[in-house]
Design a protein that fits this description.
One of its GO terms (molecular function) is nucleotidyltransferase activity. Strand 2, helix 3 and strand 3 form a beta-alpha-beta unit. The chain has a six-stranded mixed β-sheet. It is globular and about 50 Å long. Helix 4 packs across helix 5 and helix 5 packs antiparallel against helix 9. The N and C termini lie far apart (about 55 Å). It folds into two domains: about 140 residues, Beta Polymerase, domain 2, CATH 3.30.460; about 110 residues. The chain is of the alpha+beta class. The chain has nine helices and six strands; from the N terminus they run H-E-H-E-H-E-E-E-H-E-H-H-H-H-H.
Amino acid sequence: MGEVKPYTSYPGVNKLLDKFVSNVNNILKQQLVSIYILGSLAVGDFNLNSSDIDFLVITETNLKKEIITYLRNMHYELVSNNPIWGDRLEGSYISKDKLKEFQPPENPRPYIHKGQLKLLRYGNEWIIEKYVLKKHGMILKGEDLRSEIKYIKQNDLKRVTLKILYNWWKPMINNKSKLYDDEYQAYAVLSMCRVIYTLHHGTVVSKPKAARWVKKELSEKWDSLINDALMWSKDMKFNRIDEIVKFIKYTIQYSQQFNNLLED
């Protein structure tokens, strides 16, 4: 194996990305258009102890079943051969024509989470992901297509953020099953901070940056909860479900001043 490319300032991440890019290129061949890094590695505030390595692979067309099988096996092997970083890869494979669509694509796409490939439809997160791709996307290989993505307006970001809050997070007030996971608890707290930040500013920043802003500008009541979420790592317990539910309720209450956007 040759010299590892310095994609980031983290040697372990670079080693994984080097293998990932090589594997994807070998499997997709002429189907490969671009490979991007999104998330905190692109936006900022990457946490070695807890952050995922978010990616997006752009292909010429929708992938055939046999190619998806090769990708599924490849991601499984990445986790097996790199247990520290392999299961941090999270992302999707989509065809390049989808970048021009404002609404989420109807067809399921190959989606990777903790080394497992599933065929899932995009939800409202599609618009946020395209926004992050256009503004912050870090290209690892191939053609840069970000200029083909139409500008996403502030109100569109706020509107889709409201939909995610009401459709995904609000049901957890009564159905707390996802919140029994410590990692998901920390994720929920920081996600609420980013919801509040996006509704206020009409832009998307890293979860830690949003959390720091919420601590500074809003009620001190949540400081302890937010601090614990910021410091959380994968070997730590969280166990603050009741407080998280209250924080979700607070975020919903805060969001009501923007509900007119849902009527547009």
